[in-house]
Amino acid sequence: MSSEKSKEERTWTEEIEVFGHELVDKVKKLVAEGNVRKLIVRTPEGQVLIELPLTAGVAVGGVVTLMAPVLAALGALAALLVRARVQVVRTGNPEASGQGPQQKKDEST
Questions:
Q1: Which of 23, 42, 87, 99 lies in disulfide reach of 78, CB 3.0 to 4.6 Å?
Q2: CA nearest 85: which of 32, 10, 31, 27?
Q3: How does DSSP assign 36-99, residue by residue?
Q4: What is the Rg, in whole angstroms, of the alpha carbon atoms belonging to the chain?
């Protein structure tokens, strides 16, 4: 049974590219999904701007409330950025969510 659990609790990473003005909304959506363990916001060149570790199992409303100062800082950063890359570390069963363990890039329009 423990091997089944470890299979289901896999961790994978995806990378999403967003415009600066969409950064805060995208981060809020990712936090609300619940299976995100860590968010890393990078410049298009790959420089880390901020790394947000998230705890699984915390009520979504509580996380957004606790993250209000961080989201305000992200909003200020977003005003300076044209584009940003968000690296998302997820846990769970990638097959069940329709996403694989490979890296994926999205272009926001």
A1: 23
A2: 27
A3: EEEEEEE-TT--EEEEEE--TTS-HHHHHHHTHHHHHHHHHHHHH-SEEEEEEEEEE-TTTTT-
A4: 14
Beta-strand pair 10-19/83-92: antiparallel
CATH number of 2-92: 3.30.1490
Whole-prediction pTM: 0.67
Edge-to-edge strands, sheet with 83-92? 10-19, 83-92, 36-42, 48-53
User: Residue 41 is encoded by which pair of tokens?
Assistant: 């916001």
pLDDT (tens place) for every residue of the chain, 109 residues total: 455 554 556 888 999 999 988 998 998 888 888 788 889 999 889 999 888 887 654 545 555 666 778 778 888 878 888 899 999 998 876 665 555 444 444 444 4
Q: Between 68-80 and 23-33, two packed helices, what is the crossing angle to 10 degrees?
A: 140
Taking the C-alpha atoms of residue 64 and residue 30, their distance in angstroms, rounded to an integer, is: 11
